[in-house]
Amino acid sequence: MPGRQCRGSIAKNHTMNTAKKRLKNKDIIKENDENEQIESALLPGLPNHLAHLCLSSLQPSLLYNVNTSWRKFIYSPYYPPFFSLYALLYKTSSISPSVGFFCFDTISSKWKPLPSPPSNPPLCLIRHHPSYISRVIPIQSVTTSGHLVLVAGTTNKFLPALTRPLVFDPLSSKWYFGPPLLNPRRWCVTGSINGAIYVASGVGTKYQCDVAKSLERWDISKHESSWNWEKRASFRDGRFSREAVEAVGYRGKLCMVNIKGKTLKEGAVYNVVMDQWEEMPRGMLAGWNGPATVDDDDDVMYVVDQENGSMRKYNADNDRWEEMIEASEYLKGAEHISAGRGRVCAVSGDGRTIVVVDILSRPVKTWRVNPPQGMEAIAVHILPRMVTV
C-alpha cells in the first residue's frame, strides 16, 4: 500500500508539473505574439493600412534608417517601388565561371542576388570559350514594362542558349518563361519598345539566310493566353547577323547600328507602326560611336563615345548629337548603357566598373559602383526594386 501511494503521488505531481509547464508555455507564446504585434505596428495607435498611407509619402532613404519594421516596409508590396540597378554579372573567380543576376539596392548600397531562375531546362550560358580566347561571347538582355528579359545567349556547343525568353518580374520576385521563339538565335538584334520585344537577324543552330534577315515580335503587355512571337517585315540582307546588336526604341522606331565605335558602320531603322525598314538619318549614324540607350521617361536618346568617353544626346530636329559630358576616363570603352529616372548607367573598364551619371544635376555628376568581388558586369538595367514577400 505505501508503495502504491508513493507511485500515485509521483504521478499526480508529474501531471501537475506538466500542466504548469503547458500554462507557462502558453503565457510565453501569448507574450511573444503580443510583442510581435507591437513590433509589426508601423505607427503605434494606427492600423497598418493607415500607417501605409502615411509612410508611403516619405523617401525610402529616410525610412530605411529608422527601425527594422520601416526598413521591411519599403521592400513590401505596400510601398511604392523605388528604382534599383540590375546587372548581369560574370563570375570569374570560381573554377567553373558562371553568369549571375544581381540587384544593387541604392538605399542600402548592397548587392543582392536575384532568386535562382528555373532549373528546367537548365540555363547554360558561356561568356568565353577556349577556342576563341580573345572573343567575348555576347549575352543579350532587354527591359520592357518593368521586367528584365534574357533573350539570347550561346551554349558551350555554340548553339542558341534560349528557345524561350526568360523573364524576371521584380514586383513578384519571380522568374517565368515567355513563348517559344519562332527561330531561336544568338548574335542577333534585340530591342524593346511600347511593351513589345523584338528579335532580328542572328544565327541559329547554323547560319541561314532567311533567319539572318528575319524579324519577330512578342507583345509582353498582352494576356499570357495570347502570348506568341509573330513575324514582321524582313530586312533586305543579313548584315546584322555578325555581332550582337542592341536596338534602341526611340519615338516609335527601333534604331540600330551593326558595329560600335568609330569604324565604318551601317545603320537601320525599323518603323514599328508601319512595319517597314527605313534608312537611318545621316547625323544619327555619324555620331553613333558606342553603346546607346533611351530614357523612356523623357524620350531622349544617349550615346557614349567608346574612344574618348564623352556622352551625348540626340537632337532629332537637327539630326545631330549634342555633348553632355566631355571626355571621361571612367566612360572610355563603355560596353553597355541603360537609362531611367534621370540616370544613365554604363558598364566600363572591361566590366570591372559601373559608372552612374546623374543627368538631372547641374553640373552633371558621375560616380562609380563596383560589382561584387570576383565578378564582372555584362549589362545593367534600371528597374523597380525587388519585393520581399
UniProtKB/TrEMBL annotation:
Gene3D superfamilies: Kelch-type beta propeller. InterPro entries: Kelch-typ_b-propeller. This is F-box/kelch-repeat protein SKIP25.
